[in-house]
Amino acid sequence: MTTATGGHDHGHIHPPAPQVEEISDYSVLEIALRELAIEHGLFTAEEHLHFTEWAEKIGPASGSRLVAKAWLDPEFKKLCLTDANAASKAVGVDWLDPTGAGTPSDYTHFVVLEDTPTLHHVIVCTLCSCYPRPMLGNSPYWYRSTNYRRRLVRWPRPVLSEFGLIVPPEVEVRVEDSNQKCRFMVMPMRPEGTDGWTEDQLAEIVTRDCMIGVASPKPGRTADKHPIHKARHPVGHEPKPMGVAE
Amino acid sequence: MSSSSKNTPVCRFKVGDRVRIKDQSWLFYSRVQLYARGVEGTIARLNYTDLVAEDETFNVEGEIEQHYIVQFRQQDLWPEYAFPNDTLQSEYPDRWLEPLNNSQA
Amino acid sequence: MSAASDTGHDRIALLEAIRSQGKEWGVLAPKWGCNDPDPPWKFPLAGTFEALSESGALPSLERRHAEDELGDSLYKDVPPPESYLLTLAHTMIERGLLAEGELQQKMQAVRSRLEEE
Questions:
Q1: Segments making up each domain of chain A, as ranges
Q2: Which of A24, A202, C20, C23 could in theory staple to A68 by disulfide, Cβ–Cβ 3.0 to 4.6 A?
Q3: Does pLDDT of C59 surpass 70?
Q4: Measured between beta carbons, which residues in chain B are less than 8 angstroms from residue A243?
Q5: Structure confidence at residue B54 (pLDDT)
Q6: CB spacing of A154 vs B81 below 8 angstroms
Q7: Residue ranges of domains in chain B
């Protein structure tokens, strides 16, 4: 709409982003399950709301900040490695009260695994998909998949290469299978080209995938992307590992 | 050998000890991976003392045990594994470990 | 009308009907030009997982094992998070936490309510 002088009126509102306008059976199913569960006394509406809000709130920002702080402060780095629960409090995460419900579902023993020039860590939970949710948020779908969980322990380097990460043969790849009450996070190495960076700038390149160990931080890399590669060792039909008794 | 009261958790190993993961039968479910059964590794870390997960789930009055991180060479786990330096670590409670020629059991 | 499969899990007709429509978020979002990577029900679903586990009705480890088994078999052509939702419904029905018939009725009631809004 033009004004009398011929200029443009900049008061227009941008149209909202498109939404899905149809009601899928999936969205109906989610609500129906929840309402029936509440009707049957399996949980209360308040409990459900509490956990839903927590799931919405968490994300990898606390983890990114922990790593960035450690990169800048050797004393803080030492704390991360010797008492990760205490270090977490510095970025606002209390492992003894991660849901605010007084009953942590995410176990309380947090351990930070430090990468070095000769050691690269990557995390998995073959049992289910345990994940340090208070620090990294909700786990990605691929982390929960049987495809990742069964293959990473045995073929870590091919799986990492599917994520675009090639680890030189002289660097030790260490898989951490979190099968009990510890929750792990990788502290990757600070990359070249970040001298003089602020904590915010450093945190921006420490993405979730870097803290799981399937990516390395780099200047300019501020998002996780997942190219789809066909697995060279698909799940199933593999021979028994050596440790299994006959 | 070692028994525990409520005050002294079972803790037979220290960092650096060589151990083998037992291959024992279990009642309902176990968090000890099939791939690790019978495999030798090294104690990498002492984590926490706690009830063993199997006991906790079924509310059995179990003993508090030391939980450890054990490190394996990947070449000891998988027959075709090509990189000699690579390792895998996982967590085990004391009862799932047996000593291998350590100076102290 | 459930047919036995070779996995030891019977198919559940109500869930098969949902699955066969193929209306996953990965299909709906591009159709409507929506750029959100996840459906909005992803978070309340996470709330349900957590609440069921905390109350003891369905502990997370058991739910995840069922999710793996069903996700690798009956629902292997369904992507996440729809696979998580279907396997949850399947597991709850199998364990008698709710019945297929009442779920069908509830879904009808919920849909009517949503369509009126």
A1: 25-55, 59-212
A2: A202
A3: yes
A4: 21, 23, 34-39, 76-77
A5: 64
A6: yes
A7: 18-99
Kindly list the residues from chain B whose CB atom is less than 8 angstroms away from the CB atom of residue A244: 34-35, 37-38
Q: Do C51 and A48 touch, CB atoms closer than 8 A? A: yes
The catalytic residue positions of A are: 125, 128-130
Q: What is the ipTM of this complex?
A: 0.95
Please say whether the beta carbons of A30 and A24 come within 8 A: no
Instruction: Sort out which chain A residues have CB atoms less than 8 A from B64's CB and list them.
Output: none
Q: Which residues contact B74 (CB under 8 A, 6 or more apart)?
A: A156, A175, B81, B83, B86, B87, B88
Q: Which among B37, B47, B92 has CB closest to A245?
A: B37
Residue C83 is predicted with a pLDDT of 97
Interchain CB distance below 8 Å, C60 and A40? no
Model pLDDT for residues A134-186, shown as the tens digit of each residue: 999 999 999 999 999 999 999 999 999 999 999 999 999 999 999 988 999 99
Question: What tens digit of pLDDT does each residue of C8-49 get?
Answer: 899 999 999 999 999 999 999 999 999 999 999 999 999 999
Measure CB to CB from residue C115 to each of A23, A36, A105 and give the nearest one: A23
Residue A81: pLDDT over 60: yes
CB-CB under 8 Å, C110 with A32: yes
Per DSSP, the three-state class of A158 is helix
The pTM is what?
0.88
- B104 CA to chain A: closest CA distance, Å? 25
pLDDT in tens, A92-113: 998 887 665 444 455 778 999 9
pLDDT of the residue at B24: 82
Angle B66-A95-A221 from CA coordinates, rounded to 5°: 110
Domain positions in chain C are: 13-116
Superfamily of domain A59-212: Nitrile hydratase alpha /Thiocyanate hydrolase gamma (3.90.330.10)
**Cβ <8 Å between C52 and A29:** no
Strands laid side by side in the B18-21 sheet: A119-124, A172-177, B87-93, B64-73, B40-51, B18-21, B97-99
Q: How many CB pairs under 8 A join A and B?
A: 99
- Strand B87-93 versus strand A109-114 pairing type: unpaired
Looking at the partner chain, which of B35, B48, B53 has a beta carbon nearest the beta carbon of A243?
Answer: B35
Contact B89 A176 (CB under 8 A): yes
Put simply, the answer to whether A27 touches C39 (Cβ < 8 Å) is yes
Domain B18-99 matching CATH 3.40.50.880: the answer reads no
* Confidence bin at B100 (pLDDT 50/70/90): very high
User: What subunits touch chain C, counting only 3 or more CB pairs under 8 A?
Assistant: A
Chains A–C, number of C-beta pairs less than 8 Å apart: 154
Mean pLDDT of chain A: 87
The pair of structure tokens assigned to C40 is 């909005």
